[in-house]
Structure of VanZ family protein:
Amino acid sequence: MKKAIILIICLLWFGFIFYNSTKSGDVSNVKSYNILNKIRAQYNQLEGEEKRHYNSLPKNAREEKLNLIIRKNAHAFEYCVLAIIISFVLFQFNLRGRGTIIYIMFICLFYAVLDEFHQIYVPGRTSSVRDVLIDFTGAVIGITLYYFVYYKFINKKRYEDEKVNYIPQ
């Protein structure tokens, strides 16, 4: 049952990424600018040198730069989460280790390429190799986080629990 649930979550996340890539560039920009407005509210609380440095750029250049940063980080975040979910799925099927990392990376890279290919046909969207690299970087970060947490905390706890409950025969 646990395996089925995590597989469903994985498929839903694939769907979420696909759904986001079907949005036009205008819709995507509106979402990014909503986040930008929240950042702007935080900016208004800045003082001194931080505020002066930020103000040295023209206003429209600042907003375009921040919008781009927000959009690219959203790409990376989607694939970071995807890599974590795929890692969890494969671990549920006892697929662990270095070889599994290659599978996870391949799945994420393949889906990033498919996603960019799909965006060619979405009005107002473009496809770029840079976005594939950003997606893949997010996936590598997700894999690194998952493996670090798993082997540093989860696997260590399991080993200690087995050691305590071990009964020699």
Summary: The chain has a mean pLDDT of 83. DSSP finds six helices and no strands in the chain. The two ends are 33 Å apart (CA to CA). Residues 2-26+72-165 form one domain.
